[in-house]
Structures are given as C-alpha cells and as structure tokens.
Amino acid sequence: REVLKTLQAQRLIDVFPGKGSYVTNLTPTGGEVSIEHLLRKGEITTRDLVTARRMLESEAAALAAVRRTDADMERLRAILEAFDRADKVQVAIDLDVAFHEAAVVASGNAVIQIMFGSIRDLVRGMVSRSLTDRRVRRLGAPVHHTILDAIDRRDPDAAREAVAEHISLSERTYGDDIDQPLADVLNRRAISDPEHAALLKGVSARLTDDRT
Known about the structure:
This protein is 71% helix and 4% strand. The protein contains twelve helices and two strands. Strands 1-2 form a two-stranded antiparallel ribbon. Strand 1 (13-16) and strand 2 form a beta hairpin.
C-alpha cells in the first residue's frame, strides 16, 4: 500500500478505488518522465539523440561564437590539442565529450548547459560508437578544428553549420543502427569490433544500468 501511495505521488500510476491501479500514460513534457525512463522503455533511438544534439549543440556553438571568452578559447584549444595527441581510444572519448561540453559552456547559457548535462552519458555512448569506427573517426575528428576556428572567429553561422555537419555524420555512416536504441547499437558494435568490445560493452552497461 505504501509503495502504491509513493508511485501515485510520483504520478507514475493512477489509483481508482474499487477498480485498481493503472500505469499513468506519461508524456515527456509533463515533467515526470526522465531520460532513464525513456531508455528503459526503449523509446530513445540513436537518431533521436542525433536530432536533439544537432538542435542543442548547433545553437550552443553559435551562441559561443558570440559570447566566448579568452578563457573559453584556451580551454577548447587545450582539449582539442590533447585529443589530437591521444593514442588510447578511451582517452580520446573522454576528450571528445569534454570538447563538446566546453563549447556548450562557452555559450554562457546555464539552461543549455543543464540540458547538455542531462544527455552527457548518451553523448558519451554516441562518441564511443564513432571513435571505435576508424572511418567515422577519420571523417569526423577534423571537423572539431572547423568548429574551434568558427568560434574563435566569432562566426555564429559557421559554428552552427560545423557542429550540425559533425553530428549529422552518424546519419550517413551508422546504417540501420541509427534507428536503434543506443545501448543496443553499442552491443552490436562490440560484436563486430573485438578490439574495443570491452570498452563498448562497458558504456552500454552503464546506459542499461540507468534503465533498471
């Protein structure tokens, strides 16, 4: 009974006296649904993430090109230089995510920063899929420099375009995986890439843990 009361208070179930308890038909805009809930239900595909990242990070980069400080540029350059030197995939993944986060921070908009933070683990999963694929990394990594240059030149249109191009690359290279849940994509990638299987399964497991 106490459990039912708790679930009802969280608006996860509706209780009708004499009839029973029913799962509430939640909508993402209602405030009760988390990323973890949608992951658990398998309602977030990699394409969903690409679309959301393109909208969020492209506009963040455009804003960063207008608002960035010298400290922001110093941070972005240092991260990208370290990324270019990285000889371990795990290190490259961490630096790739850090670069995208630093660009969001450079926007100076706290709401955008919070929004990025809410999908950071998903971004890490997508980056892991990309950087363990030599073709995708070869095509995508150089665009980081285009993004950096546009923000440095204070060119919001170029920054927006560069980020959109960078994130959209997965739509052209992931094949059928683009319409599958990200955890499933990582597991399938692990099967076809024994070299990085442990890394990919680890990232997938963290996403799966969030779904339980």
